[in-house]
Amino acid sequence: MTRQMTGAKMVVQALKDQGVDVVFGYPGGAVLPIYDEIFQQNGIRHILVRHEQGAVHAAEGYARATGKPGVCLVTSGPGATNAVTGLTDALLDSIPIVVLTGQVPTFMIGSDAFQEADTVGITRSCTKHNWLVKDTERLPHVLHEAFHVATSGRPGPVLVDIPKDVQFASATYTPPKQVRTSHYAPRVKGDMDAITELVEALETAKRPVFYTGGGVINSGPGASQLLRELVDATGFPITSTLMGLGAYPASGQKWLGMLGMHGLYEANMAMHDCDLMINIGARFDDRITGRIDAFSPNSKKAHIDIDPSSINKVIRVDIPIVGDVGHVLEDLLKVWKARGRKTNREGLAKWWAQIEEWRKVDCLAFKQNGPAIKPQYALQRLEELTKGHDRYICTEVGQHQMWAAQYLGFEEPNRWMTSGGLGTMGYGFPASIGVQMAHPDALVINVAGEASWLMNMQEMGTAVQFRLPVKQFILNNERLGMVRQWQELLHGERYSHSWSEALPDFVKLAEAFGAKGIICSDPADLDDAIMEMINHDGPVIFDCLVEKHENCFPMIPSGAPHNKMLLGEASTKDAIGSSGAVLV
Amino acid sequence: MSALQIKKGSSKHSAYNLRPNFSDTQERHTLAVLVDNEAGVLARVIGLFSARGYNIESLTVAEVDHASGLSRITVVTTGTPQVIEQIKAQLGRIVPVHDVHDLTVEGPSVERELALLKVAGDGDKRVEALRLADIFRANVVDSTLQSFVFEITGTPEKIDAFADLMRPLGLVEVARTGVAALSRGA
């Protein structure tokens, strides 16, 4: 069915036809015609955020918790520039989002008009693709193409810039099925020869390890199921990046825990000493590899990735397989089964014995002693008291994020929303709003640090207005904890600007917004306080006052390889050489 | 020396030092990139090179298929084999890019560049310029009593050689198109 309508109406129609049920946005002059159309319909819910950055992070949270693209609508100029951090965040974490921006009318573009910015120019390098639509005729095609690009291949953010006169003008609307999408169709099936080569390597490996990442989550729940089948059938150990947590259950027998800079000892040691590394949907990020020339020196490396540019970008691999994780794992399992489900049992038994030795180090052990709550203890209790719930966890960025990754267990994919690549402080709170919109009855918790949380605290207004019962679990150490930790280790304990003196009273802050505030500083009160948070039907700010100078361990210091981890305070002295100090 | 036995001042352990795994030799490659002729596509390609720190030695672009709106970008770049592979993979990621061909490795190819050179002078120098132009098969496309504008087509090296010869003869200005290239054979 094709019919005449205004550009503004096309936007709403195209969103409905793409199955969009919620839009996060903020109105302004250049998007008023679209907001007028939103006003006159009921199919799409609009969530009014308090800052455009919040809109994009909320859309990211929604996308990660559902696997569907998140959608934002913001105005021209400052609306668009405020979205830039969120776009970059989504680009680095490969999150499918569609951002619609208003633009000044076509005849005013280039005249430095009020609230004019070169939006496609500014966002070119922080989107997967973007479009400026100068003609209403083209608008339906571009809108459908935008969803196609955002969700195909390696997912990512896209932006469509729509001048105001294009929104007012009328043209023929074309529904998605009648629109011919572009040539853009990344390859999803892996090369069978390479897959067979990997199967041969699986059959003989003595010390194999699966190293999985966000690509498994992005490939969909089917990919996680296949991964579980593969891991359980081969009996190989599995570790994951921050981005991939939940693809394999934390309670699974073969689970080594997260790897990388703050990963578990057994996971990093297995990566270093393995003879076969099977990278599934991860990208050898510098938080993972540490020192490049000492990275897993004796292993054969296979790499499954949908993006050919990820292959050999950082680490040279022996068996590259370009394809979608789900498709490749399906073929891999088929070939491996057809060849008789062989593994090197003897080698594996020895390998597991070695891994058990590493596990005995118990690298996450801590002592809850003294009057102050240890942040690790707070998360351990949070895990204990919430793990039975239908639970989604977001985080901000810093020490609390790493502790959350270490001490919380994820049994399913799409339950863990954290800014991995860009490391965006202020991500978690708006993301939790997006998650709660997608799953209204679920328990959505944002594990935060007080400094990160303050970066987008204005979204309390959104949570209260839309009755979104998000729980803000703030580990308050009155410090920029990770900055402070690096200053301690690298900069002679000169704590330059890494603490805040004028923090708000979080309970009063919650009350000022019409929400509930809880403060807890005594380990003995913690369980009751967490239960009070869980049982409250509405948004909560939980101000958990924790030990101020706790450092996050284990840690691979800058410039060190995986087998040179720091396990605790005693090992930190002079751990980082002067040349390691230049790394971030 | 620190507890980690990292030698002071050593840069070998940098997380960003990709060298140990890859070859160091610099190679020159000519890439042909077929793109949709849409607004901003050249900015995307150039932006990729600048954002990721790749070199551009020469770049040409024009629409080559008006019916389907396809443009051909010919870019000459240098880098280690790993960097060249990255450039090709990164170019392939750009949504309006249809195809990336590495003419340097995909068999024999021809490369041509066109240049216009203005040479001013009189007397013997003027005669010598004309004589050399004839040897290089350069055409005179403009002439006054004090100057010539030569048009020359050839490989970049040939144009370099011609320009070097013209310099002492009164070379005033050069305009070059950059390299256009095609693979040989059917």
Structure at a glance:
The complex is a heterodimer of chains A (584) and B (186). By secondary structure, chain A is an alpha/beta fold. In chain A, helix 23 links the parallel strand 19 and strand 20.
Description:
The complex is a heterodimer of chains A (584) and B (186). Chain A is an alpha/beta fold. In chain A, α3 runs parallel beside α5 (84-93) and α3 crosses α18 (428-438). The longest helix of chain A is centred in the N-terminal third of the chain and has 15 residues, at 52-66. The N and C termini of chain A lie far apart (55 Å). The mean pLDDT of chain A is 96. Chain B folds into 2 domains: 23-102, Alpha-Beta Plaits, CATH 3.30.70; 109-183, ACT-like. Chain A, domain 2 (Alpha-Beta Plaits), CATH 3.30.70.1150. Classes of the chains: A alpha/beta (584), B alpha+beta (186).
Global Rg of chain B: 22 Å
Strand content of chain A: 15-25%
User: Strand order of the main beta sheet of chain A, please?
Assistant: 3-2-4-5-7-6
In terms of DSSP E residues, the strand content of chain B is 35-45%
Low-confidence stretches of chain B: 1-20
The tally of structural domains of chain A comes to 3
